[in-house]
Amino acid sequence: MTRADLAALLAAADVTDVDIDAAMADEHVRSSAYRQVVSAVAEGPRGDLDEIVVRVFLRDPVNVVAKSAVVAFIDAVAPTFSDSAGFERWAAALAPEFEHLATPTEREFVRHRIHDWTTYLAIASGEIPAAADLATTSNWMQSLLASESTSLPVLAALAESGSTKKIRNAAQNRAGSRQLRDGR
C-alpha cells in the first residue's frame, strides 16, 4: 500500500484526523485509521466506495491487519441490510477482492463470516434455517444468535445442538424467557 492509497481512502471516507505518515509507519495507527474508515463508510450507501475500502485494506503489508480490517468492515456492513439476499449480492460483488487475502485460511474465514451473516439476516427476516444449517455457523455466530435471536425455533435448535455448552445454555435460558414466550 502506498501513502497515496491511504490518503485517498481517508479522503473518500471523510476521515480527516489521521496522521498519514504515522499510519504508514505504524500498523497500530493504521489499524485505528481503518476502524474510523469502517465506521464512516459502513452506515452510508453501498457502492463503489466499498470496493475501494476492501481493496486498500487488502494492500496493507501486515496480513493480520488486512484481514482484521476486512472482517470489521463485513461485521459493520452486514447489519445495515434488511435481508440476506441484499447482503449476499453485496458480498458476491466483493468476492473477487476477498480472494486477494494472503492465505487460503484467511479467505475461508471471510467466506465463513459471510455465511454467518447471511444466516443471521435470514433469521432476522423471519426465516427458520434447518438445524444442519445452524450447525455450520461459527461459535461466534451461534453465541450471537443465542443472545440476540427472538426466534423460538432457532433458540430451541441452538439449545439442543449448539456447538458449546455455553451456547446451549444461553439459548435454553433465552428460549425459556417469559418475555419471548409472551411475545414481548
Residue fraction in strands: under 5%
Q: How many helical elements? A: 12
Identify the overall geometry: elongated
List how many beta strands DSSP finds.
0
Radius of gyration: 18 Å
For the sheet with most strands, the description reads: none
The sequence of SSEs as H and E is HHHHHHHHHHHH
Low-confidence stretches: none
Structural class: mainly alpha
Tell me roughly what share of residues is in helical segments. over 70%
Task: Report, as a whole number of angstroms, the end-to-end distance.
Answer: 50 Å
Q: What is the mean pLDDT?
A: 93
Which labels suit this protein?
elongated, 184 residues
Task: Please give a structural write-up.
There is one protein chain. This protein is mostly helical and 184 residues long. It has a domain at 130-184. Helix content is 73%, strand content 0%. It is built from twelve helices and no strands. It has helices at 3-12, 20-25, 27-42, 48-58, 63-77, 84-98, 104-124, 131-135, 139-148, 152-161, 165-175, 178-181. The longest helix is centred in the middle third of the chain and has 21 residues, at 104-124. The N and C termini lie far apart (50 Å). The mean pLDDT is 93.
